[in-house]
Amino acid sequence: MSITTILSTIDSLEKLHKSLLRLAIDKTALIKSGDMAGLDQMLKDEQAHLAAIVQMDNARQRAVAQYLADQGRSVPAEPTVSDLLEAAPEADKQRLEEARDRLLHAIHELKWQNDLNQKLTYQSLQFVNLSLDMVRPRPESVNYSKTEISGNNASKARTTFDTNA
């Protein structure tokens, strides 16, 4: 397995993450507008992207594991690019580090956008709950009040039923 193949896989992962970032940005607009049908479709698109990312990451892990095995090194359970950097020749290290940094930057931007979407969704739910609380009638108290228990109820003096008779 060559470094070029691994770099190609990392570049594909970066493109998929950037595409998912574009979807997350579009999702922000859908959340702001309250377009539930659009959000439903967006979630389906995100699931497809996530499946592709998982497949591509598995391919990256296999490629790194194969490269490490070809170099006669021990292969960890989940091989990373950092493991690869230790085994790669000096000529390829810079390209690998640049590809890793670009991928990490795309992941960081995606994480930030997803955090924003999560906060917007939470605020929307709070607004809906507040609106429902304002519309819903308040139930009357089903318990006795303190004055009714102690016998200081003003309505007791006005009753027409005489209990002393």
Describe this structure in words.
It contains five helices and no strands. Helix 1 (3-33) packs antiparallel against helix 2 and helix 1 runs parallel beside helix 4. 75% of the residues lie in helices and 0% in strands. It is elongated and about 105 Å long. With 165 residues, the chain is mostly helical. It has helices at residues 3-33, 36-70, 81-87, 90-135, 146-150.
Offer a concise description of the structure.
With 165 residues, this protein is mainly α. Helix content is 75%, strand content 0%. The protein has helices at residues 3-33, 36-70, 81-87, 90-135, 146-150.
What is the number of beta strands?
0
Distance between the termini: 106 Å
Mean pLDDT: 85
- Oligomer classification: single chain
What is the helix fraction of residues, given as a range?
Answer: over 70%
Strand content: under 5%
Looking at this protein, list some descriptive labels.
165 residues; 75% helix; mainly alpha
How is the secondary structure organized here?
Layout: H1 3-33, H2 36-70, H3 81-87, H4 90-135, H5 146-150
